[in-house]
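Before any further analysis, we paired sequence with structure tokens, yielding the entry below:
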Amino acid sequence: MDISRTTVGRLEIFGIADARPAPVDPARSYPDVPREAWTPHARWLTAEGLFRPDLGCFVVRGPAGVVLVDAGIGPGPVAYLGEARGTLRRHLDALGIGLADVTSVLFTHLHFDHVGWASLPDAQGAMRPSFPNARYVVGRSEWAFWEASPQSVMAHHREAFERVVRPVAVAGQLVVVEDGAEPIDGFAYRRLPGNTPGHQGILATSVGARCLFAADLCHCPVQVREWRWSHRSDVEPEAGRASRRAVFGELADTGTLLAFGHFPRGADIGEVHADGGGWRWAPVAG
């Protein structure tokens, strides 16, 4: 499955797998987790016992227009991902959505696999915003983190920021908002530090129904149960654990959906339920 689908109130939500890189040893992604700890969670690994996340984003179609939550890896080829190429544009075409139809791009954070389609080269090779009619939005803490060219992240993240995010700002289409702001009616940022210091989720609300786009709060469904596990990309692992504990404790059994870009399509949107002193993941997307 490349596109998952669900509805939240008047919102149509599509989870898109922009790319699926080659699977890796789970110890590469979760270096502090011993191999045997994966045994009860084998369903989230390949038949060979490898970890293969989706690199995805979400399209939300509703009264606010066409909202893109994060922007995938880009057209590629991406050397860091074994020359992977993104498929977002093809999937937008399949949904009947052109680049000019996107009205807002909401960034949860600015890691390279969440910003890749922000800009594309024009006929002369200059990078221009991919979505000409969209307002791109990012939180103030996240913007400040990347503006400082942080050495705590790998070079390919910093390169992507300069190559595809900076041109959006130069073009005047990027808006930096306060953390926790509501940049679009019905879409509110919520601070979820950990993966980056300014990492935020986006809570979409429609006629009383809610979905929290939680981005890199988790990279695999196993982290709902094993909320103490940290992915290698987390800049602040302890903050990430605190964010997971807070979100799962607050939203479990409330009917609020959560959406994760790195979960497999079909398991990327679901609910958290209390279970034996912890939590479990219950997918709902089809």
